[in-house]
Write a structure and sequence with these properties.
The structure holds two protein chains of two kinds. By secondary structure, chain A is mainly beta. Chain A has no helices and twelve strands. In chain A, strands 2, 5, 6, 10, 11 and 12 form a six-stranded mixed β-sheet that branches. A four-stranded antiparallel β-sheet of chain A has the order 3-9-8-7, with no helix packed on it. In chain A, a hairpin with a 5-residue loop joins strand 5 and strand 6. The model of chain A has no long low-confidence stretch (mean pLDDT about 90). In chain B, strands 2, 4, 5, 6, 9, 10 and 11 form a seven-stranded mixed β-sheet that branches. A four-stranded antiparallel β-sheet of chain B has the order 1-3-8-7, with no helix packed on it. The chains are: A mainly beta, B mainly beta.
Chain lengths: ~110, ~110
């Protein structure tokens, strides 16, 4: 079945450091890929998405590229801020009318001032 | 605020009691989803509705769980005879049928079963 594996946390970085959170997936066909973010005390928010191979999703300085050849969708940001501290979830949805989203286990990111 | 809302935000109950949660989706969204999130894990799909029809249920949704969306607007999730293993965050999300990949999540209901 479809699944998502993402880098285990927690990840702690200093402000302005470069961020990479790895994510790989297993799916049949051509899934859509997502990164969701959960800030402390808040609900899940869609951060970015990509719906086909080689698409790049971007938002708030974060980027991720849909790599079908490596079945990956790594999240990157060039210079993190304290306000980026949150839990990040990689996710996918299969190409079906069911459209349920399958999430990874999440990576907690903490940014030191 | 026109986002997804859930009520209550927190619920503490004793084992064996029944609980019911409510979700109000974004008004123009005709799809509504329930997920469960346990500590340190990502959300897991439970069930979804298109309008009032329940179209898919996960194997996680045991016979103690029932969900309804009687008029195609708000939805309720009931858990009967709660067990300690039911302790989790219950998330609701909604989407438009033609943009089902864009699911908007509510703040969740945190259930603690003592």
């Amino acid at each position: 079945g479809n699944s998502v594996t993402q880098m285990e946390g927690p990840v702690t970085l200093s402000e302005e450091a470069f961020l990479t959170i790895n994510c790989t997936y297993t799916a049949t066909g051509y899934p859509s890929l997502f990164w969701y973010v959960q800030y402390p005390g808040e609900g899940l928010q869609l951060l970015l998405k990509a719906t086909k191979a080689d698409d790049k999703g971007s938002n708030k300085g974060f980027e991720a590229t849909y790599r079908k050849e490596t079945t990956s969708f790594h999240l990157e940001k060039g210079s993190v801020q304290v306000s980026d501290s949150a839990v990040y979830f990689c996710a996918l949805s299969g190409y079906s009318s069911a459209s349920k989203i399958i999430f990874g286990s999440g990576t907690r990111l903490s940014i030191r001032p | 605020d026109t986002g997804v809302s859930q009520d209550p935000r927190h619920k503490i109950t004793k084992r064996g009691q029944n609980v019911t949660f409510r979700c109000d989706p974004i008004s123009e969204h005709n799809r509504l989803y329930w997920y469960r999130q346990t500590l340190g894990q990502g959300p897991e799909f439970l069930t979804y509705f298109q309008n009032e029809a329940q179209l898919e249920k996960s194997r996680l949704l045991s016979d103690r769980f029932s969900a309804e969306r009687p008029k195609g607007s708000f939805s309720t999730l009931e858990i009967q005879r709660t067990e300690q293993g039911d302790s989790a965050m219950y998330l609701c999300a909604s989407s438009r049928r033609d943009r089902y990949n864009e699911q908007f999540f509510g703040p969740g209901t945190r259930l603690t079963v003592l």
